[in-house]
Amino acid sequence: MPKGLVVIDRERCKGCGLCIDACPFGVLGFSGEYNSSGYNVATMLHPEKCTGCAICAQMCPDVAIEVYRQQPDQPKEAV
Amino acid sequence: MSQVSVEIPPGYQKVFGRPRALSDAPYTYCPGCHHGIIGRLIAEAIDELGIQGRTVGIAPVGCSVFLYRFYRCDFIQAAHGRACAVATGLKRANPDLIVFSYQGDGDLAAIGTAETVHAAARGENFTVIFVNNQIYGMTGGEMAPTTLPGQRTVTTPQGRDVALTGYPLKISEMLAQLDAPAYITRQSVHDARHVQLARKAILKAFRNQLEGKGFSLVEVLATCPTNFRMPPVEAQKWVTEKAMQFFPLGDLKVRDE
Predict the structure, then answer these.
(1) Does A66 contact B14 at a Cβ distance shorter than 8 Å?
(2) Which of B74, B100, B111, B114 is the most buried (most CB within 10 A)?
């Protein structure tokens, strides 16, 4: 399981490519699929490399990206 | 606008999503426009300070004229350039409101210079977000007061000739000379590190208002890929290679009391 997971809202994405340029691990790329506005939507081409750093989401001008990160096993709380 | 409906496997926790202060309306900006990032940073500041219920924004004339659609807070659409004048009246009549104006360089630095300078000189207690993309975006890419020397626009096709049209206005440097402003800074959003710095600056500008410190202005260097005639990623390089050389980043005035 990769450490991070990126969810891109296809309809919000305008295919500007800023997230692809910003990702330090080359996770993202253009999907070649077009949304209803005709934009080439970004997607995770290499999901296994994602660390959940959220740099893509920081750079997304359309706030189309949600980032999820795998949580380390929670220490058991004393009841 | 379609909602994200993806199955998230167990064990994953959301670490980044849309701020609550942003509405579901999609931005009307062009692809790669920095307005979107700056708008999100303001929404994050509103969320963090918990002021959504008493925040009123002043929208300018320009690409961000539809700002009121994008936030879950009240907005006033001011006449071109008069956002600081409207904000002055609003804040003086309702001191409990948190008032911010969001203006581009065509609005704040051209037609609205007088309102901005005098609001700063009076030390009015509100926050100004000044988006400087060195061009008139909405009207088709004409020369702005902040257009760099030699920069090509549709009205300066040979590049801005300083002998004919003078030099760009450095609004933040001008305002930093005044006694009253509490906080004048210039930031950029061309990479993730600078987005974080801009986020901190915008948060500080709002916090100054909450603490009654007075006029705070955050200038943010931005791109206009459409009118720069560049792909968005290339337009970001313009910021570091050209714009930041003429408009250096950093705090120009910080009044700590």
Answers:
(1) yes
(2) B100
